[in-house]
Amino acid sequence: MRQRDDPKIQAVRWFLEFLSEDFKTMSEVDLSRKMLEAQHYLIQSEQVVLRRDFIQDIRKRPKHYLGRDRLKHIQSSLRGFLEKRITSPTSLFPVSKVDFLFGTLDGTLKVKYSLDDYLLDTKKDPSKLAHIAELSLSLAVDGIPLEAIRICPECGRHFFHLSKKPRYYCSPTCTSRAISRRRRQANPEGYRARQREIMRKKYREGAKKIGKPTKG
User: Which of 101 and 123 is assigned the larger pLDDT?
Assistant: First the structure.
């Protein structure tokens, strides 16, 4: 099965993207989509054993139940939760209020747990949804090699890379930005000269399109 078709890999990628989302500036359309995804990945993960009546109750709650502020709170909680564990030496940590351990073991993120019935009173304290999200995240990354979860040195976003081919940045944009900065720092005058030539070339191409004469 290809990585992009593997439900586990899809879940890990979703969580890492969630950690880097900007909920403050996110459009209402994108926010609505993210709230629907959050119900699946954060709360109703197939790997998390929750009482059926709890899941049905979540579905009945108003749209704002997983709104912008609540998602930001869960995001902040998950970010600290994951980073503490991936930067710690080989060790297992308790997760929330269940007989559940999560951490690193022999270079791999591992989960060890005995889960019977888990239900938090989120009606009185919705912030406790973060505990369920921690449980879902832990199960999603169980067995994932530690080096597959990375932080982009250019923008700070989390990203997933499970391949022998080296990848240091989260996107082509960050890769290009980092390369340009290194070139500029290594040879400032040469970099400026190349940039001037690029601008002249763009000007000449634009002038040709509108029939404007150019020099040289």
Answer: 101
